[in-house]
Specification:
alpha+beta, Molecular chaperone DnaJ, single chain, elongated, five-stranded antiparallel β-sheet, 9 helices, 297 residues, Helix Hairpins, 10 strands
C-alpha cells in the first residue's frame, strides 16, 4: 500500500462497492483490525492534498471522504452477512425482492443495484442477460435493459449484478396502485415497449412477470430484468400479464394477447400496433402517474 500512487488510490477507493473491497477480515479480531487500520492510513496518505496535483484535489477529497465511510462501515460490520464477490467488487445481498424456483433477486447496498442469484448449484439461468445485451445494445435499445456491473459463479451458483435507473417501479407496484386495472391506453405504451425489447432480443425472456418488468412512470421508460434461460415462448406470460394489469378494463387487448400467445414477439408487435391504431387512433403521449403513498386516496 505504501507505494500506491494518488491516482491508483483514488481509483481503488472509487471502485469499491462495499467496505470489504478494501478491508478484509473480522473487525472483532485484533490482527485484522490492525491490518485494516494500516490499509486505511496508507490509502488516506496517498490521497492527501499535498500528494495530489491541484487539478485532482477535488477527486482526492471525495475519495478521502468515501474511504472514511467504508472504514467506518467495516468497523461496525461484525457480521458480514450474505454476499457475493465478483471481478469488480463485493455485493451484499440485502432485501430479497422476488424469487421463483430458479432465481432469487436481492437489493444491493447501493441504490439501484440488484443481484440475481441462481438458487441451485450448477445453474446458469442468470447468464441470459449477458447473452441478450449485445443484440439489444447494437439496436440502440440498451436503455430497455439494466446496466450489467458484474457477473460470476460463487459456490457453483451463477449470479449477475446490475443497476437499474432511478425512478423505476415494478409492475407489481403499479398493480398495487391500480388494483382494478389500468386504462388500456396506459397499458398500451408499457406492453409496446416490452414487445419491442423482446423482438430486438430475438430470444424468449424466460421469467417475464410483474416483478421483472420495471417502468418509469413519468418518462414512459421500460426496463426488463430477470432474464433467465428460456423455458418456452413469451406469449403465454404476456397474455397472463395483460390480464393481470388490465383486469376487466379492456377486454379487447386481453382477447388479442390470448389469441396471439403463440406468435413470435415481432409478429405480436406488428399486429398489436394495428389493434391500437384501430382502437385509439394516432398515438399520443399520455401522462401516467403513480399515486402518492403519503396521501390518502
Amino acid at each position: 500500500m505504501r507505494k500506491t500512487t494518488p491516482g491508483q488510490a483514488i481509483t481503488l477507493i472509487c471502485r469499491a462497492t462495499a467496505a470489504r473491497d478494501l478491508f478484509a477480515g473480522d473487525p472483532r479480531n485484533s490482527a485484522d483490525r490492525l491490518a485494516a487500520r494500516r490499509t486505511f492510513r496508507s490509502l488516506l496518505a496517498a490521497v492527501h492534498p499535498d500528494r495530489t496535483a491541484a487539478t485532482g484535489q477535488d477527486h482526492a477529497r471525495g475519495a478521502a471522504a468515501r474511504l472514511s465511510e467504508l472504514y467506518a462501515d467495516w468497523q461496525q460490520d461484525s457480521t458480514p452477512g450474505p454476499h457475493v464477490i465478483g471481478t469488480h467488487g463485493t455485493y451484499p445481498l440485502r432485501v430479497r425482492l422476488w424469487a421463483d424456483e430458479r432465481v432469487a433477486c436481492y437489493a444491493g447496498a447501493e441504490a439501484g443495484v440488484r443481484i440475481e442469484l441462481d438458487r441451485a448449484a450448477g445453474g446458469r439461468c442468470t447468464g441470459a442477460l449477458g447473452e441478450v445485451w449485445p443484440d439489444v445494445a447494437l439496436s440502440g435499445m440498451s436503455s430497455f435493459l439494466p446496466d450489467i456491473i458484474d457477473a460470476e459463479v460463487t459456490g457453483g451458483r451463477g449470479w449477475i449484478a446490475y443497476r437499474v435507473p432511478p425512478g423505476m417501479v415494478s409492475l407489481r407496484e403499479v398493480h398495487a396502485a391500480y388494483p382494478d386495472g389500468l386504462d388500456g391506453r396506459d397499458w398500451a405504451w408499457m406492453l409496446r415497449r416490452i414487445l419491442m425489447t423482446l423482438a430486438t432480443a430475438r430470444r424468449p425472456h424466460g421469467n417475464l412477470g410483474i416483478d421483472t418488468v420495471l417502468i418509469h412512470p413519468d418518462q414512459h421508460g421500460v426496463v426488463l430484468t430477470g432474464w433467465t434461460a428460456a423455458t418456452g415462448g413469451d406469449g403465454p406470460a404476456l397474455a397472463e400479464l395483460t390480464d393481470t394489469m388490465l383486469g376487466s378494463g379492456d377486454p379487447r387487448q386481453s382477447r388479442f394477447m390470448r389469441a396471439a400467445r403463440h406468435l413470435p414477439p415481432e409478429r405480436q408487435l406488428a399486429e398489436y400496433n394495428l389493434l391500437l391504431r384501430h382502437t385509439y387512433g394516432r398515438r399520443r403521449f399520455r401522462p401516467f402517474t403513480m399515486p402518492d403513498p403519503n396521501n390518502s386516496r
